[in-house]
Amino acid sequence: MAFEILSNRWDSVIVYILGESGPMRPRALITRIGGISPKVLNEALRRLECNGLVVRQAYAEAPPRVDYSLTEAGLALLGPIRAMGAWAGRYTEVVLAAQASFARREDRPYTS
Fold this sequence. Notes:
By secondary structure, the chain is mainly alpha-helical. It has helices spanning 2-5, 11-21, 26-33, 38-50, 72-76, 78-106, and strands spanning 54-59, 65-70. It contains six helices and two strands, in the order H-H-H-H-E-E-H-H.
């Protein structure tokens, strides 16, 4: 279930940032993440909300203000996300070397 929920490219990034920074507005998330469009961020936030990982808090203000924060389930994912980050930090070079070796063996560039 966890892999299915976080299989989207941006979902784990959003969960991690909300976990490290606390509630944030969409514009602040875009700035902090970098490289994500407002449309893609909105889709990811809706998906995370649908899966019970993020809660949307709308405020009755002019102009309207919306914050997103993690639910208990979202907070519980921070440990596994950090563990995956540690794994990536330790094994990225090994994986890249294996991909290059495979590409040479297959006589073609590797594209993931």
